[in-house]
Model the fold of this input.
Amino acid sequence: MSFGIGLACLGAAACFLLPAYYVNPTVATALC
Amino acid sequence: MMALYGVYYLQRSLGLDPYVSLAVMVPMMFAAGYLAYRYVIGVASHGRDENILLVTLGVAIVLENLALFLFKSDTRTIDTAYTFTTVPIGSAMIALPKIVAFFGAAATAGILLLVMPPRPISGARSAPARRSAKARAWSASTSSTSSP
Done:
């Protein structure tokens, strides 16, 4: 359950981050 | 990285705004985390905490190389109507997505605190217990040094 909550937070962070940032395979860590 | 690619492709394929894709990505990532622990990390770690670190590192390496294989090493981003919108705050011009990200992160942290209130780590001693243990140790050391 904690892993799920943690990844849900990362999902929220990605939605807030992408309009101002970028993505490539090495950005952050793989689970982000 | 997984979530960022998810948001990227939701925007590119469905035209979904990144903030609207919160409704899709948060449940999807929760499910991914739950299933990853239930069927991969939890099984492979055999109940030992230190194994979780190794297994998550292994999963991270696999995912990163899978992403390199699928998406190449190109850097991608999205263009929205508000990407270059700035908001004057004092004498500074701050990008609107960064302001939204700041308040979004604060709101997410607030929700997380409501869902998971801070608790003492199990097995950790409370502050009074630590103080009394320190006092006992100090008392023992002084009595042994002061005795003739």
